[in-house]
Design a protein that fits this description.
The protein has helices at residues 20-29, 50-56, 82-87, 98-102, 108-120, 133-137, 141-153, 180-197, 199-204, 218-222, 240-245; strands at residues 8-13, 39-44, 61-65, 92-95, 124-129, 162-166, 206-210, 229-232. By secondary structure, the chain is of the alpha/beta class. An eight-stranded parallel β-barrel has the order 1-2-3-4-5-6-7-8, surrounded by four helices. The structure holds 2-phosphoglycolic acid (PGA).
Length: 249
């Protein structure tokens, strides 16, 4: 199966940005007629705006939480459960983002458990992995992403509900994008790992790239055979996001 047969997937990770006025502006430029039918689009607002955004956007655009916990309910102050997300019509979640791992100390093990729990409750998951600059410079990129992917894979039974996001930490929010060749090399090795679970999982699972994707670099990245879309941070808050969604046109 080629990249063109896997539906192109573009996620917009708004992180901790926006207010009602700026979100209304984003909803305005996200009109379905502006977005290619060949792309699956999911946006991820801060938790307190999830329900508002879900109600405002058409159902053709998915909405993702930026995190959720691995329990249905209970004494977990500050957390949200997958059941709560589903209750408000949000059925995607980003898990294992590098900011969760590196600022909030989430381990591979916790990320894996969260992925397994969210999937078991019927959520679809954007599972993030990626190496630090020091790990790349030490030649450890493949080993690091393989370790992170294994911790996730051990908790996945239905891969059709999972999108893997490769986001080199040194490229996130820095303006330093991986070159198409650097990203392709890692994506190909991740696909090989997925293919070792089953050839179908390797062929069908979308592996998207994240890290300083913008309207100028999205086309050359999208042209690589194992890059099936993007997870976009900063540029997802601007009309450039539409160009990125349509990068394959
Ligand atoms: P960026 O963030 O596009 O601002 O680099 C990407 C991400 O963190 O998902």
């Amino acid at each position: 199966m080629s990249a063109r047969e896997r539906k192109f997937f573009v996620g917009g990770n708004w992180k901790m940005n926006g207010d009602t006025a700026s979100i209304n502006g984003i909803i305005e430029f996200m009109k379905p007629e502006n977005l290619s039918d060949d792309s699956e689009v999911v946006v991820s607002p801060p938790t307190c705006y999830l329900q508002y955004v879900r109600q405002k956007l058409p159902v053709s655009i998915g909405v993702a939480a930026q995190n959720c916990y691995k329990a249905e309910k209970g004494a977990f102050t500050g957390e949200v459960s997958p059941l709560m997300l589903k209750d408000i019509g949000v059925n995607w979640v980003i898990l294992g983002h590098s900011e969760r791992r590196n600022i909030f100390g989430e381990s591979d093990e916790l990320v894996g458990e969260k992925v397994g729990f969210a999937l078991s409750k019927g959520m679809r998951v954007i599972a993030c992995i990626g190496e630090l600059l020091s790990e790349r410079e030490a030649g450890k990129t493949e080993a690091v992403v393989a370790r992170q992917l294994k911790a996730i894979a051990d908790n996945v039974s239905n891969w059709s509900d999972v999108v893997v996001a490769y986001e080199p930490v040194w490229a996130i929010g820095t303006g330093k994008t991986a070159t198409p060749e650097q990203a392709q090399e890692v994506h190909a090795s991740l696909r090989k790992t997925l293919s070792s679970i089953s050839s179908q999982i390797g062929a069908q699972t979308r592996i998207i790239y994240g890290g300083s994707v913008n309207a100028g670099n999205c086309r050359s990245l999208a042209a690589m055979s194992d890059i099936d879309g993007f997870l976009v941070g900063g540029a997802s808050l601007k009309p450039d996001f539409v160009t990125i969604v349509n990068a394959q046109d």
